[in-house]
Amino acid sequence: MLLVVGVYLVAGNVAGGGSGAGGRTLAKGSVPAAYLSLVQKWGNLCSAINPALLAAQLYQESGFNPKAQSPAAAQGIAQFIPGTWATHGIDGDGDGDRDVWDPSDAIPSAASYDCSLASHVDDVPGNLTENMLASYNAGAYAVIRYQGVPPYAETRNYVKTITTLAESFAAPESRVDPSEQAAAAIAYAQKKLGTLYLWGGNGTPEQGGRFDCSGLTKAAYESVGIELPRVANDQYNAGPHPARDELLPGDLVFFSDDLTNSRAIRHVGMYVGGGYMINAPRTGAVIRFDPIDTPDYFGATRVTEDGAKALPSNV
User: Fold this and answer.
1) Residues of the chain falling short of pLDDT 70
2) Burial (Cβ within 10 Å: 0-12, 13-18, ≥19) of residue 79
């Protein structure tokens, strides 16, 4: 525990803060490979958006599910309602039709719609991206009326959610700030060493205090007031992604059989330093220390409170 705290304190003195979302490129594997080229291309359609921001919107809307349909009749990967699609849907792939269920049309249409909204508020004071997102939520008229993001709680929350979530899809431009809660989260996980693994385990008394991999990481961060999703691939988007040589104790480390797609992540552990993690590995094993440098290592996430709060509940 003293080693962990010492590493954390030293890192806090050398790590620089992250920058804003403008011009951000995508983190490795953060967007499913099937949609990567579309998000990269159309995410640069205008100055109000970038690929990471467009990816955050798609993830928030559908979890990259092209077959998603909401009770309000929103359809496809970008969740257009029929009336909005009729006005703003475009033939993104040039095949002669506009299909809301086809990501080759829906993703370009989402970017085009964003840029159209931005054009309506480009002379409004403040941050153009934030004003565009506010227009998406509350309408351009409200942004023009209030000369910026309107004072609606829902709209301000939406703007913060998307800009924060974009950080989890962007490749960091500098060293990622250390987590203030990491040491306490590790302390929680360390107390579970030697506990027998349980598939679906959340550590409840009825389960004998046993965990699976994501149940353990969820409980560890819940102990410091951060609510993570239940499954590993959603936990990946709970903050920015430090490089392998920038890992700090408390970072979540992820593993997958498909290193091109964060939605295919199947396992998570908690990094403790020295190339090791606290890991709830599989049925029949106990929670233990394991090395992270394996062929299926996908990447890491530095959990933040805002990042966790920004995650959608419907993916």
Assistant:
1) 1-23, 314-315
2) buried
